[in-house]
Design goal:
Elements lengths: L10 H12 L6 E6 L2 E4 L7 H13 L2 H9 L26 E2 L2 E2 L1 H20 L12 E5 L3 H13 L3 H6 L4 E5 L4 H8 L7 E6 L6 H18 L4 H4 E4 L3 H7 L6 E2 L14 H11 L1 H19 L14 E2 L4 E2 L1 E6 L3 H15 L4 E6 L7 H13 L17 E4 L10 H6 L5 E6 L15 H18 L3 H6 L7 H4 L7 E6 L4 H22 L10 H20 L8 H13 L2 E6 L3 E5 L11 H12 L3 E5 L5 E5 L3 E6 L13 E4 L27
Helix pairs in contact: 1-2, 2-13, 4-11, 5-11, 5-14, 11-12, 12-19, 13-19, 14-19
């Protein structure tokens, strides 16, 4: 990087530290406009002098130089020795953005063209599934940035009029969590014959993603046969050998590159492929163009001009009003990041609330939560020096007005939490009811305009006294105010605007990291937990399969593991050849598996093929050919008996002959078969 000097050691940082002790006022009118968007900073705890000092801090941090290095393809992700070029993913076809001297834009568009061609084949019905049916249902498997970013865009587009028409008759779901409940929710109501699965894993080794991928591969192959996998599964990956070994045709693998960080990958095949399959490439291309428009203006930002001064202030009859209109101002994105640093590092506010007054943006906060907290939640500088100041923000949020009935109490009268209010001029789905005072959208936006003022100006005891509020309630109804926020008003929520919103946050977060002098593009903090989980996984396997005791963990973890193993204990019953068991799988115990899938899980454990006598949905009947071990969950069994609690009868290998009636002491609620063997 440009300098190894800690930003906190510069005169500009020290000047701001001194400045915050002296000044604590808000600007009255302070906003900028771009491409129909209005950004209002008036309610930040910053004056014109503060803004000037923040831009001087940016110069001291060599911010412009760092931005240029990112766009020029230098390896600014030094800990992983990688370029950071997510801006190339949405660059125009004729752009020139280099990594190691090579223009990567043609490679990007080669993949985009491939996605366009493939998605059009699927959507038109020229690419069909194994049984000849059109593939109208998409399940995208990925985790982290491979899930949160695409889900945010999908949710925002679901109610956009053009996108609705393009997606009619289709559905898109995202499978991320390794919890089998997430699998069950995703495949419920889905037909393997009409489902296309997109597996997103750069290396094709991500533990959670690949387990989910194998689960859905089993779901498809058990219904349609193993050869159906090639017609019903595609990949977003660079590891073609593993893709092919998995059963996916390498020609149906869509590439992305190591200069794309996971949380910045929504504009790559990670997001573009599933979104194009759902909405068509033309809609997604508008999203990319929106993001690109912000990229270009961010890159053109200059910090030595258009900085306002006191000469722009006007006066009314009662007080001085500082009126600042930046107009066409590329550095408004820089200012967003600078004000975040101002709130975190100088005011000491650790959190930020993202409050979109649009239900379509309900997944914005979770996505920005990852982009921000994974990027800037660091304890050392990019040179590995421990920092004496905090970096990053605790991001959370909920759409208005839902959040008002959840956590706004705290942000009004509890902790100070800087807020991002995001509003939309034109609703995606306007409703006008006869006789109502305002439309539904006007009701929503009334709250959007009111809440920032309530936070900024509050309500004083004197005002409450003037309203004749009882004295004992005045302390409870006092609002301290002086709580910072900024407002972003979008003209609409089209695919183009959604792309702009995404890029605004991405660049804002990068500015924060550049100022703090950290590496915003690695994520070593996620590695330790994954490593420890691998140790636990090995222990669970050893304890379940070999009966080995829990060892090698601290007392607390050992205690919890023992309890978990005890409560999921497996009772072993050995039966001679030729017998048949009949038992029931109860909802919630079988992980949503069909009878055939359960049999397939049992075969490797028993070590010999199982011969199915009958496959009704419930119960399951099967026979094995020699003495083998059948494992049954017994946590709901009152007592363990050497005699099995199921219908048992001697039958030949070829099938059913007779079945003995269950004895009187059979529990009325027999145990469920343990699905993980």
């Amino acid at each position: 990087m440009a300098s190894s000097t800690r930003i906190c050691d510069t005169e500009q940082w020290k000047d701001l530290k001194h400045w915050i002790v002296m000044r604590h006022a808000m600007l009255d009118v302070f906003y900028s406009e771009f491409d129909g968007m209005l950004l209002d900073y008036s309610r930040q705890l910053a004056t014109l002098e503060t803004i000037d000092k923040l831009f001087k801090l940016a110069e001291a941090a060599c911010l412009k130089e760092k931005i240029n290095k990112m766009f020029n393809g230098e390896r600014i992700n030094s800990t992983e020795n990688r370029c950071v070029l997510h801006v190339a993913l949405r660059a125009p076809r004729d752009a020139d953005i280099k990594c190691d001297g090579k223009n990567v834009v043609p490679d990007v568009w080669q993949v985009l063209d491939k996605i366009k061609e493939f998605s059009e084949r699927v959507r038109s019905g020229s690419w069909v599934g194994a049984t000849g049916k059109a593939l109208k249902d998409i399940i995208s498997i990925g985790i982290g940035g491979s899930f949160l970013g695409p889900l945010f865009v999908h949710t925002a587009l679901q109610t956009e009029p053009e996108a609705i028409e393009c997606a009619r008759g289709r559905q898109l779901r995202f499978l991320a969590n390794v919890d089998p409940v997430d699998v069950a929710r995703n495949i419920t109501g889905m037909n393997p014959e009409t489902t296309l699965v997109v597996v997103v894993s750069k290396t094709f080794t991500t533990a959670e993603t690949m387990l989910n991928a194998r689960t859905l591969r089993e779901w498809i192959s058990s219904a349609l046969g193993p050869k159906a996998v090639a017609k019903h599964m595609v990949a977003v990956s660079t590891n073609l050998p593993l893709v092919e070994k998995f059963g996916i045709d390498p020609n149906n693998a869509f590439a992305f590159w190591d200069w794309v960080g996971g949380r910045y990958s929504v504009c790559s095949a990670v997001g573009v492929l599933p979104l194009s399959l759902q909405y068509g490439f033309s809609v997604v291309e508008k999203f990319l163009k929106g993001a690109s428009s912000i990229d270009q203006h961010f890159y053109s930002a200059t910090f030595n001009q258009n900085i306002p001064d006191k000469s722009m202030a006007t006066r009314n009859n009662t007080r001085e009003v500082e009126f600042v209109h930046f107009g066409f101002m590329p550095q408004h994105l820089v200012l967003l990041g600078l004000l975040s640093v101002w709130n975190v590092s100088f005011h000491g506010y650790p959190a930020r609330a993202i409050l979109p007054y649009s239900q379509a943006l309900e997944k914005l906060a979770p996505h920005i939560q990852q982009v921000s907290m994974e990027s800037n939640g660091k304890q050392v500088s990019i040179d590995g020096v421990v920092l004496p100041y905090e970096t990053g923000e605790i991001d959370f949020g909920e759409p208005g007005t839902n959040g008002q009935h959840s956590f706004y109490q705290l942000i009004h009268q509890g902790r100070v939490v800087p807020c991002d209010f995001i509003g939309v001029v034109k609703s995606q789905q306007p409703v006008y009811l006869k006789g109502e005072v305002v439309s539904n959208h006007d009701e929503l936006m009334s709250n959007f305009f009111a809440q920032p003022d309530a936070l900024a100006f509050g309500k004083t005891p004197q005002q409450l006294q003037n309203e004749n509020v009882p004295q004992h309630l005045i302390p409870h109804k006092t609002f301290p105010g002086n709580r910072p926020s900024f407002c972003l008003l979008l003209p609409s929520l089209s695919a183009y605007n959604i792309g702009q919103l995404l890029a605004i946050y991405e660049h804002r977060i990068a500015v924060e990291g550049f100022i703090w002098g950290i590496n915003s593009f690695d994520q070593w903090g996620v590695e330790l937990g994954k490593s420890l989980a691998s140790q636990v996984r090995n222990q669970l396997h050893a304890s379940r399969k070999k009966g080995e005791p829990v060892k090698g963990f601290n007392f607390s973890t050992t205690t919890m593991l023992k309890r978990y193993l005890e409560k999921t204990a497996i009772h072993v019953i050995r039966r001679p050849r030729g017998e048949i068991f009949s038992f029931k799988l109860y909802p919630g115990h079988s992980e949503g598996l069909t009878s055939a899938e359960m049999i397939q899980r049992l075969e490797p454990t028993l070590g010999d093929p199982l011969y199915l006598a009958s496959i009704p949905h419930l119960p399951i009947h099967f026979v094995w050919t020699h003495g083998a071990t059948l494992r049954l969950h017994h946590s709901r069994t009152p007592s363990l008996s050497p005699r099995p609690c199921f219908n048992v009868g001697a039958v030949p290998r070829t099938g059913f002959t007779r079945r003995k009636e269950a004895s009187a002491d059979v529990p009325p609620d027999p145990p469920a078969l343990l699905p993980h063997m």
